[in-house]
From TrEMBL:
It comes from Pomatorhinus ruficollis (streak-breasted scimitar babbler). Residues 112-260 form the Isochorismatase-like domain. Signal peptide: none annotated. The gene is Isoc1. This is Isochorismatase domain-containing protein 1. Belongs to the isochorismatase family. It holds the Pfam family Isochorismatase.
């Protein structure tokens, strides 16, 4: 992780002085807060090490961060003062720095997970170009199996809306989960992601673009993950809803791309041992449908 240097800032944090050889510290990152302790007199480097030990599976090692200290005199967090040493109980947090280019968009099989969202039978007559996105979705899942990429699948209220369509082969999926929440980011999904070391990128596709796809993508980037939405495997009942959702998501730094771009980026080289098999998957051209037009 390329962490930002602690900046000069006034004030102090913490509360009661701790005795003994260690000091209690509350470590906060994203929506999490975990109590722990560090040796008395620990500085910036030890705090970073502790953050990594507590949240290493959640932290994007390619981003820059700043450590902040809760200052009671200001009743808010301040950048960690230069030369800060922990000598009393305190609360610190790790904050991702916001930059103009939020992601490079690189994909590697070892750091990628595919999310297949609600490709269910009852949506067939309602979703525009549903047959096309089923075809492309199946191609993506075949690619995932070839490249050893974990796949997480959800089904929205399957009791009423049916299971995933038969054309989509879920063989080898890491998780197939029913849900009522629109977002795929459920506790079981977060637990599954935590079991996969080094996850950095999510490839997301399914329905509906402006509801479950949009809410899933926003939650994922809020957790520091990079999101790639596959435009030719994602649709809605209304093409206007789909178009505005994709435009909104692109403005947030989410990458809107295509299935062929995803699969070729994952193999990266003609000499990749799976290149020929991936090439065979993408030889058929993308469906000539309204999915790839603006309106």
């Amino acid at each position: 992780m390329a962490a930002a240097e602690p900046g000069a800032a006034p004030g102090g944090g913490g509360c009661a002085t701790a005795g003994g050889g260690s000091v209690p510290v509350l470590f906060c990152f994203s929506v999490f807060a975990r109590p722990s302790s560090v040796p008395h007199g620990a500085g910036y480097e030890l705090l970073i090490q502790k953050f990594l030990s507590l949240y290493g599976d959640q932290i994007d090692m390619h981003r820059k961060f700043v450590v902040q200290l809760f200052a009671e005199e200001w009743s808010q967090y301040i950048d960690l003062p230069k030369g800060f040493l922990v000598n009393e109980r305190c609360k610190v947090r790790l904050v991702p720095l916001q930059i103009q280019i939020t992601t490079l968009g690189n994909l590697t099989p070892s750091s990628t997970v595919f999310f297949c969202c609600d490709m269910q039978e009852r949506f067939r007559p309602a979703i525009k170009y549903f047959g096309d996105i089923i075809s492309v979705g199946q191609r993506l899942l075949q690619g995932a199996r070839l490249l050893g990429i974990p796949v997480i699948v959800t089904e929205q209220y399957p009791k009423g809306l049916g299971s995933t369509v038969q054309e989509i082969d879920l063989t080898g999926a890491k998780l197939v989960l029913p849900k009522t929440k629109f977002s795929m980011v459920l506790p079981e999904v977060e637990a599954a992601l935590a079991e996969i070391p080094g996850v950095r990128s999510i490839v997301l596709f399914g329905v509906e673009t402006h509801v479950c796809i949009q809410q899933t993508a926003l939650e994922l980037i809020g957790r520091g993950l990079e999101v790639h939405i596959v435009a030719d495997a994602t649709s809605s009942r209304s093409m206007m809803d789909r178009m505005f959702a994709l435009e909104r998501l692109a403005r947030t730094g989410i990458i809107v791309t295509t299935s062929e771009a995803i699969l070729l980026q994952l193999v990266a080289d003609k000499e990749h041992p799976k290149f020929k098999e991936i090439q065979n998957l993408i030889k058929a051209s993308a469906p000539e449908s309204g999915l790839l037009s603006k309106v």
